[in-house]
Design brief:
The chain has 189 residues and is mostly helical. It is built from 7 helices and no strands. The chain has a domain of 59 residues. It comes from Thalassarche chlororhynchos.
C-alpha cells in the first residue's frame, strides 16, 4: 500500500521487493530506470560515496567485553574543603545564630587594605594633570593641530589652577591656625 501511495515506478517496486525477499537493507536511493547508480561527471573517482554492505557487521559480546570499553576508573574521593573549618563554622552558626568567623575575617581584611593605601594628595594630582595637558598641547602643536586643541586645553589648565589655588588657601589657613595655637600670645598677622 505504501508503494502505491508513493507513486513508484514498476521497476522501483520490483527492485524494492527483491531487496525485501533477499533480506537486504533497503537502498537509500532507488533510481527510476536502472539498478546502477548514475556517476556524476564532475566528481573524481576517489570521491565516490561508499556503499553500505547489505548485512550488518556486529561484533560478538565477548569481543566487546574483552576490550577496554567496559573498564571504569575507580572513584577516589578527595576532600574539596577543610572539614574542620566547616565544623567550627556550623557550631558558631548553631550557637550564636550568626556566621561569626567569616565576618571577623572580612573586617580585618578591609581594615588592613584601608591602612595600606595612603590617600593621594589632590594638589600633586592637579600638578601632574596640568603637566600632562601642557605636554599634549606641545605635541599637537608639533603635529600642526595646535589651533584645534589650544582653547580646550588652556580652559582645562585654568580650571586645574583654580582648584590648586583653593587647596593652597585652605592649607595656608590651616597652617596659620596651627601656628597661632603653638605660639602663645603670638601675633595673628
Amino acid at each position: 500500500a505504501m508503494m502505491e501511495e508513493s507513486k513508484l515506478t514498476r521497476f522501483q517496486r520490483r527492485y524494492l521487493m527483491d531487496c525485501v525477499k533477499r533480506g537486504d537493507t533497503l537502498p537509500l536511493q532507488c533510481h527510476p530506470t536502472s539498478s546502477k547508480e548514475p556517476v556524476p561527471a564532475f566528481s573524481p573517482p576517489g570521491c565516490q560515496p561508499s556503499r553500505l554492505s547489505a548485512k550488518p557487521h556486529l561484533r560478538p559480546a565477548k569481543v566487546c567485553q574483552a576490550g577496554d570499553a567496559y573498564a571504569r576508573e575507580k572513584f577516589k574521593p578527595r576532600a574539596r574543603r577543610d572539614l574542620e573549618k566547616e565544623k567550627q563554622r556550623l557550631q558558631n552558626i548553631l550557637a550564636t545564630g550568626k556566621d561569626v568567623v567569616e565576618h571577623k575575617v572580612k573586617q580585618t581584611l578591609v581594615q588592613t587594605k584601608e591602612e595600606e593605601i595612603p590617600e593621594p594628595d589632590r594638589f600633586e594630582e592637579l600638578v601632574n594633570e596640568v603637566q600632562e595637558r601642557k605636554e599634549f598641547l606641545a605635541e599637537m602643536e608639533a603635529l600642526g593641530q595646535g589651533k584645534k586643541y589650544r582653547r580646550i586645553v588652556l580652559t582645562e589648565i585654568s580650571q586645574k589652577m583654580r582648584e590648586m589655588e583653593i587647596i593652597d588657601k585652605k592649607r595656608s589657613e590651616e597652617m596659620r591656625e596651627i601656628m597661632t595655637k603653638d605660639i602663645p600670645g603670638g601675633n595673628t598677622s
